[in-house]
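Ligand-bound model needed. 3-methyl-2-oxobutanoic acid.
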Amino acid sequence: MSIVSAETGREHRITLPTLRRRKRRGEKIAMLTAYDFTFAQIFDTAGIDLLLVGDSLGNVVQGHDTTLPVTLEEVLYHTALVSRAAHRALVVADMPFGSYQVSPEDAVRNAIRCVKEGGAQAVKLEGGVVVLETIRRIVAAEIPVMGHVGLTPQAIHRMGGHRVQGRTEKGRAKVMADARAVEEAGAFAVVLEGMPAELASEVTASLSIPTIGIGAGGGCDGQVLVMHDLLGLSEWTPSFVKQYANLGALASQAARRFAEDVAEAKFPGDEHVYS
Ligand code: KIV
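Prediction:
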């Protein structure tokens, strides 16, 4: 059930208690990445519960091969654009590589910037057991944290590529231990990325916080996709993606028609000219 504010006529923002309730009631949670005002506004009014300003911006916005070059300043910039548009969705700023690994103190300082300067309601960071203390410290500073375990793109060099995790006994145990550590540290939710569906279901059943899956099957409490994959704006999409639109083809067609019209002096027409 959505609750509308008498003052603004808008639905109230999704909160941590809302998400906990959703898990208890078995109501699924939808999260999308967003990096700018325009798309954040579209997704917010379309009823997306969480907007993640993902460090995937390194790939889909900046054209890098990995997420590693993304800086905190860049995440803050994009988070501020998204926060300005999001009235209902909870905005999560993804802490980029280097912004939480040095020390818990440094991580808390950077998480505070995500809230103060980016306007985020929460932050996300990758890892499990090794970031337990860091999550605990950020949560103690009253900043909600979303964990991220399994395939963690910032660990690309350790993993040897974007590889599905948890396929061996040892791997399964690591994913489970990481997810439990994230919950124990006080995170409000955890992303489960790139793992067998059966393992993700098992993790979901063993945690009291919501799990948000990407390439982790339908047994999670929610799902997240990178917006460029959802909308057909990526050159290549992984097999777990369902593409809901082909905006890339539409944009290309529109640009081509515009170029033709300009070349043939068909644009601007009389109706597009000031008198
Ligand atoms: O950066 C990102 O977009 C993410 C999602 C894939 C979960 O971390």
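The chain is about 40% helix and 15% strand.
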